[in-house]
Amino acid sequence: MEPFSSNNNKIERMPPEILSLIFSYFIGKHIKVARQVCRSFNNNASLYLTDTAIAGSETKSLERFENFARHNLFRIAITTVIFSVCSLQYEYTTVNEYYEDLKLRCRYSKEKIPTLEQCEEHWHEYQNIYNDQAECWHQGDDERRIRNALRHMPNVKHLVLSSNAWEMASHPLHNLWCPPDYKIITPSRDPSGGPWKSSHGFNIMSSALLSNSIRLHSLSLHEIRLNSDGLHSISFTEKTPEVFRHLRRVALYLYIEIFQDLSWQIKFEKCLSNAREVESLEITSEPSENRSNLTTLFHTIWPKLFHLKLQVNIQFDSFIAFCQNHKESLHSLHLQSLCLFGGTWGDLMTAIRGQLRLTNAWLEDLYEGIADEKWIRLGSPAEANIFRLSEAEEYLLYGGENPFENNTLHLATYWL
Questions:
Q1: CA contacts within 13 A on the Cβ side of 339
Q2: Tens digit of pLDDT for each residue in 101-142?
């Protein structure tokens, strides 16, 4: 038998396109094994081992991100960057302060918490990360290091701003924040006076992407959680519209202040209007009776827009005009936790049904006027969501009687 060598190994001499196609069907553990076979397998299989890198404003995340950028194979495999938003509210002077706050946070929870003695190590780790983040923030190390790393990642197309990325096993701080035996203090809500980590992450990532001429295809911050306060007005500057220029998918969770000043709304809408290629658009915010509607947003025409999700208040005439302008492309509509001004939901449903040919619809938590009355379903099973208006969804998809006008749905007094 001839000795094994790369010269007579037919599999190794297969075209890289064929190998890449084969490895695209492998799961992670099989790719790891395949990489050990030979150099050709390693070069082609490594691209499917990971396509995501995590960045953040702490040293461990930055070091991991830089390691990806230095790796000859992984740096070109990365297509998605997750910026991990880890908001730490307070600096605890003593371990007793840490322990008392932990007890207060968990007073209504059945989850086990560590003893005061066990908290000693967690308190030290918390303080180290708190101080590390503050230093990165003030010295600008996070922006500089991320910008330099992205210079070596030419295939990045997707940016995700995540407030719970630390729950991922691949996050450098996962083991610290997720002990198996009890609950500790984890990253949570942005302090009301700042620093606003979601906005900070968006700003430094935008700057780093623009400086490296990277064209994003998708941008998302869509978590509706207690520890996600959304993007503030400071996120949208004169340069930000360029970040949106090539986006195809946008999912953003906005902080309530953007709705309280017309100039801030205009800046945000200028960014969105620059995304001429967008196919999927999701704009959400915390429900509030004081949240004004984004009237001018619906003056924009996106020729390729297929899916729209809104959790922001809308104005009757503006939204009808928007549907008219997108009747050829828009086929998926998700409206949730919003108020309609200037008209009724019954009339709006009739107009939407007449203009759009929807293949997917979701309607939930719809309010009339100043948000003191909400539409509900009566006669639903005990476990059903009475605020999910399935009959109205079916009307938009298949026609028939308008449930807002035949007493299938009813208005009930409700306060946000």
A1: 21
A2: 999 888 888 889 999 999 999 999 989 988 888 888 888 889
